[in-house]
Amino acid sequence: MHHTSSAYRWFLRFNYVILTVIALLCLFPIVNILAISFSSSTAVNAGSVTLWPVDFTLSSYRYMLENNQFIHSFGTSLLRVVLGVSVNLLFTILVAYPLSKEAATFRSRTAYAWIFVFTMLFGGGLIPGYLVVKEMGLLDSVWALVLPGAVPIFNVLLMLNFFRGLPKELEEAAWMDGAGHLRTLWSVYLPVSLPSIATVTLFSLVGHWNAWFDGMIYMRSPEHYPLATYLQSILQQVSVQNENVTFEQAALLNEISDRTTQASQIFLSILPILAIYPFLQRYFVHGLVVGSVKG
Amino acid sequence: MTSKSRKFPVMAAALVLSIAFSGCSNSNANNSTTAKEANAAPAAATAAAEVQGGPLTKYDPPITLTSTMNETGKETLAEGDTHANNVWTRGYEDELGIKVTYDWIVADANYNDKMNVTLASGDLPDVLKVNMVQFEQLYKAGMLQDLTEVYDQYASDLVKEYYSEEDGAALKPVTKDGKKYAMVSYGGSLDSSDMVWIRKDWLDKLGLAEPKSMQDIIKIAEAFAFNDPDGNGKKDTYGISLSKDLPINGFLLGYHAYLETWIKNDQGEIVNGTIQPEVKAGLAELQRLYKEGVIDPEFGVKDFAKQMEDVNAGKAGMFFLPQWAPFQVKDMIKKDANVNWVPYPVQSIDDQPAKTQNHLSLGGVFAVRKGYEHPEALIKLLNFQAEKMFGESAATERAKYLNGDTGLGFQNAVVSNLPPNKNVKAQDEVEQALKTGDTSKMGLEAKLFYDDIQAYRGGDLDKWHMERIFGPLSSQGVIKYYRDNDLIVMNEFIYAPTKTMNSKSATLDKLRAETFVKIIYGSLPVDDFDKFVANWKKLGGDEITKEVNEVVKGQ
Q: Which strand (E) or helix (H) includes residue B26?
């Protein structure tokens, strides 16, 4: 008995060491970016910054807070997340609830379900998507970032499975007391579905925060870029190496491609997610597992 | 129960619609106003079209023109200006009577993708700022206006002078059956010259002479790797800095090998320099140097940024980059004023002089949508930009249009074109002025460069790179040497990519990169170059060569 438990302790220790190393490896890029953002650009260009700032300076953060574009984009991203997550949640729940009913109760359920799953497998493509958004008059508005992805099918499936896993008796009891569908959904299903709601919230939150491509396609001017699109565009600009670079472009790139500023921008942009993640994470693990097991 | 659950989708649909419409109504308001403006414009414009005009005559009543914009940094704008409303757009409206609006403005890096979406959606702006591939697509689809006549009639002398440079090469790629279908932004080909950058302070420390031949270059590289040029007692330097993108042109030119360049062979056929036997000799030497430890052992996994980090950390004494290289190493000087990067012309391994390989580089293609009532407006915009920056009004207005802070405000002009090969001419003037102290005959730009160099010499280390680009010992000086001694091999193929190029060149480039890195690493014998040539031809190279010959001879 003693023998096995000592082996087990060793196993535990070993486990902790491995997991700590892996965790540190995941932290490394973030710490590196942080260190770069606090270092002088001369030191960064020479590649002498790893985990600790060299020639500590706050100038990149100062520059950025004076930079309207960053603040604008940050605001656009926040607005997008608030609108996007609310719309996504609303539709996820409103679509998942009826589809979680049995075919006997909701006769055309399978047909509807297939329509939704179909869009998961086959998309219209970039150009038709662009044309639809354009013809709807959504170009250059934050709705162009929110509405095309208003119904996240994957989240619907998660939610749907979760609803199905709930005991049928709950629903029956509510019906006995005279509740209709809306009341049942609101007062009975939603309160017990918090883990799974937290999960899909996190999914759509991270998704909206990180999405950059739609911002580039649908926005007509950089002032309306969400943060991820803005960051992508400045990071892209760094690579100069072909011989067609003119003297003027080299001078321009020298002005704008300051790696310390980029690092501070990247760091500030991941802050909100870093701040929210720990609070949602416990639901996240729980909700995913429960949602995926069919009751 | 059944009836209730049937209602549910309807309710959901109603919700979707109501939200969608609330979204629409906002932006619809904007759309309809722009649509109204666009409709109103042509009617007014037809009346104005009767008025004959010179290169810069004002439209009265004003016309409208839509285009698109690639945003470069906010720093290029004056305080309070935006890309949609700045010194250029106001100038167009006040002095030319052209009201320029942008369908969209995106960051420079995203411009091509966005333009592709726009072209595919069929919603074209009046002035199309595209690349060669997109130009070719638009031309084939018959969507472009023939600009031949309006160019002849409206282009200012200044603009015509720009396009006559280098035998009028600039407009050749956009001329079809003798008709001009676009204007271009053309910087001339000289700035694409290759050169060798060497740390002169290391040369001096090791008592080595400046290179006169390829053999010298190799000897210097070896000395930098083995003789401890930084004097720290450790073997921590290497001779040649490379990256995985293989910037080895400056080296291979010593063997008369012209990588990625279409050259005429003795039979008058156009062939690709990549597969010529001269390349093999250069690769063999690089393989030997790598084995010796002269080349950075990890270059195969380093990108350009990483390569430059090493250079900035003082680990390498030689690299091959074009004239703008000093921007990449300017921080080193601030840390250690003894660091001294100096450019040298490419050197030859035998008694034949080594030549640089230059290519025509178009910064952009400016075309006009078929059906736009004022194709000449494009020419006028180009006239205007040339006039404000290099014409008579430049003396008083140039600073305003360039945005004094950066000198880069010309990037915000809707279409722009700089005088071709202006940098080497500026260097000439700077060098003379530095010798004589007489700045009265200098061009505006050359004067700015001269002032920067004086500032550096007065102790402002931030301006060191200007000394090395425009000073007496500078990259533009090397370019002048090439020009004056007829040491330039031009890329013969200056047209849009051919059909097979579009589909096969990615594969061929990858094949080349992989094979060359492996040969330099020594994991493939040098003789595998012959196998590479055979594969290159088989995998589309022969087809491309055929097409290239047809295009060039057909012109």
A: helix B2-48
Q: Rounded to 5 degrees, what are φ and ψ at A32?
A: -60, -45
Q: Which of A107, A244, A254 sits opposite B361 (nearest CB)?
A: A244
**Strand B196-199 to strand B98-107: parallel, antiparallel, or no bridges (unpaired)?**
unpaired
How many residue contacts between A and B have a Cβ separation below 8 Å? 182
For chain B positions 141-160, those within 8 Å of chain A (CB to CB) are none
pLDDT tens per residue across span B450-463? 999 999 999 999 89
Instruction: Check residues B20 and B369 and name the one with the higher pLDDT.
Output: B369
Is B303 in contact with B179 (CB distance < 8 Å)? no
Mutant choice from B67, B310, B327, B417 vs A, greatest count of A C-beta within 10 A: B327
Interface predicted TM-score (ipTM) of this complex, two decimals: 0.76
Smallest CA-to-CA distance from B317 within B207, B228, B253 is with B228
State the Cα torsion B362-B365-B366-B368 to the nearest 10°: 150
Q: What is the pLDDT of residue B149?
A: 94
Strand partners, B199: B341
Q: What's the rounded mean pLDDT across residues B89-107? A: 93
Helix (H) or strand (E) holding B463: none
Contact across the interface for A45 and B335, Cβ inside 8 Å: no
**3-class DSSP state for residue B448?**
helix
Q: CA nearest B450: which of B284, B459, B435, B406?
A: B435
Tokens, residue B39:
């409709």
Does the structure show a pLDDT above 70 at B342?
Answer: yes
- Neighbouring C-beta atoms of residue B446, cutoff 10 Å: 23
pLDDT at A257 > cutoff 70: no
Model pLDDT for residues B443-452, shown as the tens digit of each residue: 888 888 999 9
Q: What is the mean pLDDT of chain B?
A: 87
Contacts of B170 (CB under 8 A, 6+ apart): B162, B163, B184, B186, B360, B362, B420
- For chain A, say whether B336 makes contact (Cβ under 8 Å): no
Interchain proximity B8–A143, CB inside 8 Å: no
pLDDT score of A35: 92
d(CA B217, CA A269): 47
DSSP string, chain A: -HHHHHHHHHHHHHHHHHHHHHHHHHHHHHHHHHHHHTS-HHHHHTT--SSS-SS---HHHHHHHT-HHHHHHHHHHHHHHHHHHHHHHHHHHHHHHHHTS-TTTSTTHHHHHHHHHHHHH----HHHHHHHHHHTT-TTSTHHHHGGGSS-HHHHHHHHHHHHHS-HHHHHHHHHTT--HHHIIIIIIHHHTHHHHHHHHHHHHHHHHH--HHHHHH-SSGGG--HHHHHHHHHHTT---STT--HHHHHHHHHH--HHHHHHHHHHHHHHHHHHHHHHHHHHHHHHHHHHS--
- Cβ neighbors of A236 (< 8 A, separation 6 or more) are B107, B109, B110
Which of A216, A221, A241 minimises the CB distance to B113?
A216
Tokens 């290099």 sit at which residue?
B390
Picking from A128, A121, A138, the residue whose alpha carbon sits closest to that of residue A215 is: A138
Tokens 């998942």 locate to A96
pLDDT at B156 over 80: yes
pLDDT (tens digit per residue) in B20-40: 333 333 333 333 334 334 444
pLDDT at A251: 77
Residues 114-133 of A with CB under 8 A from B: 126-127, 130-131
Q: Give the range among A48-57, B40-49, B120-129 with minimum mean pLDDT.
A: B40-49
Quick one: tokens of A284?
A: 């996240």
Distance CA B102, CA B81 (A): 15
Which residue of B lies nearest to A139 if distances are taken between CA atoms? B27
Report H helices in B92-188.
111-121, 132-140, 148-154, 157-168
Instruction: Give the mean model confidence (pLDDT) for residues B338-342.
Output: 94
